[in-house]
Design a protein that fits this description.
The structure is a homodimer. The first copy, chain A, is of the alpha/beta class. Chain A has a domain of 265 residues: Rossmann fold. Chain A starts with a strand and ends in an 8-residue tail after the last helix. Chains A and B meet through helix 3, helix 6, helix 8, helix 16 and helix 18 of A and helix 3, helix 6, helix 8, helix 16 and helix 18 of B.
């Protein structure tokens, strides 16, 4: 048997609870601070932005949090997602390792993002919210929230980073097909946007700027809430459904991974696959290796500082302790837009700081090499973000080959690349090159981190 | 329960046999004629183009033809495809009808086309073929054969209709990612292409021209075979796996369709869903209605003539009896490129001529209206071709509403629209308008049909 095998669960096996890693951590995570007082925020500080149920999830230390039945009913559209044994890739590499991938591109929006967009939209709907704002870089998150909004009749406004708005009209069309409104950011609709445009009329935008705009709209309009697609604890929580399913699927396969791999921008698809396995490690299981893969041009974990920082450019968000390159750091314009963020989710940063996971950075041509190799073996075109995980999985499989070890490797194929074929066109034409960040700019951004007393 | 429900089969339930409608027809299909002698062709006439196993399938009258195990193993990458109850769409329409759709967009190439690309590539591989040529219009077939070629290490060359090559760079990138070579057609690589370019240096190309080029390359090079993605009997045969799975899934659902709907260009996704149900009708079951939906701008069944005609522009192919608009007919440039073909598959034409199925034609704006309504209800963006089936399913559901009938409707969602978002952009911007063919041009094309003695 030389072909791919899917490990499929029944719809009745969609997990009933999300897994909260906080319950199993050897050290609790650091407090979130108010940007003005620099004192820990309480739930009421976050109320202008989020409904109370999500705020309570953000600060919860319960190990298991129930997934509402209506949310599970919607998940049946694409969940359980398949765990697939990549036998053809194994053969192409000639490795004794077993390579599996969890495929999240089966969702309507084509990535893992609907796993949190749907519950976020649902909790907002329950709280009577009818309007949501958000930002999007690569477009995966924006299209996922647009999709979730269409399910619950919620108006969704997406501030899309200008360069992505211009370069990826198909992503925008997807959001509009779901009924969302897209605004290129920086825009004239917010003070944050106008301030940037005044300085830089031709600004290509950034995720940090777009977050400022979306947060500002929610903060100023009582009938509008804000939704974030990564970084925050409740987002990581919602994504754990990926790893929980994978654990059941490995039981079906009679296997158990030695190495668990995912790309990490804000950290949500990484946490989604990794945290349930990390929980097994922490609760006394054997120690499975867990690797977060980031772009060498935006190396938050491998080159950033673990410090309090803002999530956005205009400094409207609370301060969170995370691995950061500084909120003023603008990474080069490489193709994995979903990984172009200056910070890393606080929970991912925390477990990295505790030495519970590893991190690795790759340049983009090596990732696209891996993505094309994967597509030719397994048929699926990975999103540029996901090619980082593919690269690492291939390298681990080649290490196994060199060492003669039959380890089991699993990676998260967080999304397909159907809306990112422009990047593949550049790759084939040789226009896609490796890019380095500016060391001086990074030093300056890190020097500008806010000063905060030890928490 | 108001949400979508998937009816999923186990991989072990992937059908073991294709269903051949010829065995159950009240009248045998018409012979295929040699373009020179106008006498019925024998298997040896087709040998320059196809491997013998496919030729034998082309002329077989056996009811069941075994699917080779290696092909079934590859099908496990995406099959069985889900049958989904579109409850949200039902609710949005307020219809008592039950609407189901079979979703073929789950394949790596995003449509039903790999169902025949994989066995075609496999039979060629078994026959020692290492090079295949084909043509593609919308790009679904070209990317599917490229995918299949990557699995079996077969070199694939795709003649892509020039206008599609220029307008859909993402489709081309997909084919190149799978390792295929794409050539815009008409090209300078063939006599057929050079002849067109001499007359019309700026020719946007057509499927008929691209077929001529691909066939010419195979005919002139003994080490190259040709593969066709629709029209022919063996292609219809391979696609019956869709309807065979659907029959099992309706048993699971405890339901049985009253109306079966699919769009029809060459007829393969239509035959794939419809023929197994038509077989049930013919073998003494109740009479389920079966509707083929075509574009009003290329209305092969509803306005074409049932006559012998060529499959291509340069008249290199055999003559087949089909509903045709004439091989010189060039349809307007509407967005469902996969439906822009002057003929209809002979088996589909035959059952239409026998009164066993219905046909209906729609203009494209009505189809995109339906596609957007569907996407907002069910999350999936349909391919422009598939929106024709969605339109018809919605209209049938609205008829049920008007008549107060709780009929069961199923349609084939033959592919997703991720590579066709340009059409949605035009739709939202109001640039997508209805288009009519030229009546005088149609009359001329029909007048030019080859004269053939009754067979």
């Amino acid at each position: 048997m030389s072909d791919q095998v899917k490990y499929t669960l029944e719809e009745s096996q969609i997990p009933k609870f999300w897994y909260n890693i906080v319950a199993d951590l050897p050290k609790p995570p650091h407090a979130v601070l108010h940007p003005g007082t620099k004192q820990p925020v309480g739930p009421s500080d976050l109320e202008p932005l989020f409904p109370m149920e999500l705020i309570l999830q953000e600060v919860s230390a319960e190990r298991e949090i129930e997934i509402p039945q209506p949310v599970r009913d919607i998940f049946r559209m694409w969940r359980p997602s398949p765990l697939i044994r990549a036998r053809r890739l194994e053969q192409a590499l000639g490795t004794p390792a077993k390579i599996y991938f969890k495929y999240e591109g089966v969702s309507p929006a084509g990535s893992h993002k609907p796993n949190t967009a749907v519950p976020q939209a649902w909790y907002n709907k329950q709280a009577g919210v009818t309007k949501l704002t958000t930002e999007t870089g690569a477009g995966q998150w924006g299209s996922s929230l647009a999709f979730a909004g269409s399910l619950f009749d919620i108006d969704v406004t997406v501030f899309q980073v200008r360069v992505s708005y211009d370069q990826k009209p198909y992503r925008r069309a997807l959001m509009e097909t779901y009924g969302a409104r897209c605004i290129p950011s920086p825009s004239n609709e917010t003070d944050s946007g106008r301030a940037v445009l005044k300085e830089h009329p031709d600004s290509p935008g950034s995720l940090g700027i777009a977050i400022s705009e979306a947060v500002e709209v929610a903060a100023k309009n009582p009938d509008v809430k804000y939704a974030l697609g990564s970084v925050l604890n409740h987002v990581m929580l919602h994504q754990t459904i990926i790893g929980e399913e994978a654990i059941k699927q490995f039981e079906l396969a009679g296997d158990d991974p030695d190495v668990i791999i995912a790309c990490a921008g804000g950290g949500s698809n990484f946490a989604g696959l990794a945290f349930p396995f990390l929980g097994l490690n922490l609760r006394g299981g054997r120690r499975r290796r867990i690797i977060a893969v980031e772009p060498a041009a935006c190396p938050t974990l491998t080159r950033g500082k673990y410090a309090y920082d803002f999530g956005d450019t205009s400094h409207l968000t609370p301060l969170v302790k995370m691995h950061t390159l500084g909120s003023t750091f603008i990474p080069p314009g490489f193709h994995a837009g979903g990984l172009r963020y200056h910070g890393m989710g606080p929970l991912v940063s925390h477990v990295y700081d505790l030495g519970l996971i590893e991190a690795r950075a790759y340049q983009q041509t090596a990732c696209f090499d891996a993505g094309v190799k994967f597509a030719r073996a397994e048929g699926i075109i990975p999103a540029p973000e996901s090619t980082h995980a593919v690269r690492c999985a291939i390298d681990e499989a080649l290490r196994c080959k060199a060492e003669g070890k039959a380890e089991t490797i699993v990676f998260n194929l967080s999304g397909h690349g159907h809306f990112d074929m422009g990047a593949y066109i550049n790759y084939f034409s040789g226009k896609l090159v490796d890019q380095d960040y500016d060391e001086a700019e990074l030093a300056m951004a890190l020097a500008g981190l806010p000063s905060v007393a030890a928490q």
